[in-house]
Amino acid sequence: MAIRSVVTRGYGNGTFNGTIALAVLRGYAAGAPVFTGTIPDISVTENTGTYTYDLSTYFAGATIYSISPAIEAGWTFNTTTAELVIDTDDTNAFGPYTVTGTNTGGSAVSNGFDVEVIEAAQVAQGGGGWAYAYEDELQRRKQKKRELEQLEEKADQISDKIDKELAKELRKQDRKKVRIEELRRLSTLAEEHKAELQKTISAKAIKAVESAIMMKTYSAMERMEREIARAREEEEFLILATSIILNS
Fold first, then answer.
1. Which residue of 6, 47, 110, 200 has the lowest C-beta tally within 10 Å?
2. 119 phi and psi, to 5 degrees?
3. Is the model's pTM score more than 0.90?
4. Domain with CATH 2.60.40.10 in the chain
């Protein structure tokens, strides 16, 4: 429980004559934690590094966390922050896992979620190359957007005002983290398909890709994202224009 003290100081005869006012703000310490959403299944491609997921954003009021069953060798789970770090060395489907958030008032358990590390060759079989990888990324973004919207709808339905505001703030943090993950994934994809991109997009777009790969800053990755999206729009326009001409 958060406690804020306000002290008005006064002096007289060497003694403290001030007043102390205590404003006790409601928190979750007195009650069990609340699980506020649904942890989605995780799917990543092999040998693409590590991925970090902050699962504390799905809980309100928890102070320690646990995950069950035991995670794979090479992965880590922080029991204080609920950060799950997955490496992509081994391909397989893992889980389902559940996370438990606990405080002195009790505990709350998450839904079960799976983690899948997909073989790079398997990803390529879906159509292969940059075009397929980029389309797959766009679909992942759409799915994640729907999941976030569902969580935000649930937050809006919470009756308690403080609980609702806390849940909505957690959802805002989710969006920021998801955005960073999207840019990092796109940067990784662009690096993997750089040779192909050099043949299909403009020199300006390639420069943005190279800058994002080298600098790995938020602004550089956003510029790369814009240039790649513009290149895709131009390609789609040319395909449409060619189709119209051939059929006229």
1. 6
2. -65, 140
3. no
4. 30-125
3-state secondary structure 22-83: EEEECCCCCCCCEECCCCCCEEEECCCCEEEEEHHHHEECCCEEEEECCCCCCCEECCCCCE
**Of 61, 59, 53, 63, nearest to 177 (Cα)?**
53
Pairwise CA distance, residues 40 & 114, whole Å: 8
Q: State the Cα–Cα distance between residues 231 and 225, nearest whole angstrom.
A: 10
Cis peptide before 96 (omega within 30 of 0): yes
Closest Cα partner for 120 from 93, 75, 89?
89
Element (H, E) at 208: helix 203-215
Q: How far apart are CA 149 and CA 205, in angstroms?
A: 31
8 Å CB contact between 101 and 33: yes
Distance CA 19, CA 199 (A): 74
> And the tokens for 124?
């390529």
| Token pair in block for residue 190 | 């662009």
CATH architecture type of domain 30-125: Sandwich (2.60)
Q: Which residue is associated with the tokens 């649930």? A: 154
CA distance 80 to 62: 9
Task: Return the structure tokens found at 186.
Answer: 């796109």
Q: In one letter, which amino acid is 128?
A: G
Give the integer Cα–Cα distance in Å for 126 and 109: 36
- Averaged in consecutive runs of 10 residues, what is the pLDDT profile of the chain (248 residues)? 40 41 40 87 83 89 95 94 91 93 94 86 58 82 84 85 87 88 89 86 89 88 91 79 72
Sign of torsion, CA 176 122 207 228?
A: negative
